Amino acid sequence: MHNFRGLLLNPSIDHAAFGDELAASGVVQIPDFLEQFAAEETFTCLDQQVTWELAFRNGAEAMTRSTAQLASMTPEDRQAFHGAVIEQAKRDYQFAYFRYPMIDAYTNKWEPKLMLNAILEAINSPDSIEHFRTLTGDEQIRKIELQATLFAPGHFLMQHNDSASTADDRRFAIVINLTKEWEPHWGGMLEFVDGREVTKTHVPTFNSCSLFKVPRDHQVSYVAPFATKPRYALTGWLRAD
Known about the structure:
Layout: H1 15-25, E1 27-30, H2 36-48, E2 53-58, E3 61-66, H3 67-71, H4 75-91, E4 95-100, H5 102-108, H6 115-123, H7 126-136, E5 143-151, E6 156-160, E7 170-177, E8 190-194, E9 197-202, E10 209-213, E11 218-220, E12 231-239
Antiparallel strand pairs: 1-10, 2-3, 2-4, 4-5, 4-6, 5-12, 6-11, 7-10, 7-12, 8-9, 8-11
Helix pairs in contact: 1-7
């Protein structure tokens, strides 16, 4: 497994400037967030090595289907399955995207040589935690929870605010974008919402990081069927529990 030895985050980030913007508006997008080699290696891992599962909701229950389960469906079953996902979206909260549960995989040693394990260790190192405390001004941040995500054509994440229904003490949400050459007209935008207005939009530019204080209403816009690249990201929360 890779060992980044604390070299994961770009040391030249202007903590004061981005911290001021985050404090003033509750949201910031930071370019060149990871060291360049770390961003490149993580992109390669997501693009070539990760075994994804589809995340969606069935009623109030969050569920997943493995790529093997999806591949074993008949065309008729696959059409009915996707139809049911869309039907729920017409009347209730819904999402559909591929994910890799980094915390579960790390804890259970599913794929110990996968580079995402080293990423999780590095971003939770004492130096990285101090980096996030300085950036956010929150000295109570203790850990970073991440999952890997892939949005393909037809995927979306409807409006929600990231408030935790459990004991998780989520202070800030984090989205580290790892898609190369994403075109804005493909969709997949991180959009911040106030009522019926989109107040701010973040394009998932390669190696940029969106940080925002939670709870805050946001969504990922529908990815168009003509998008020719997958939208990769590491997403999660800075937590104080």
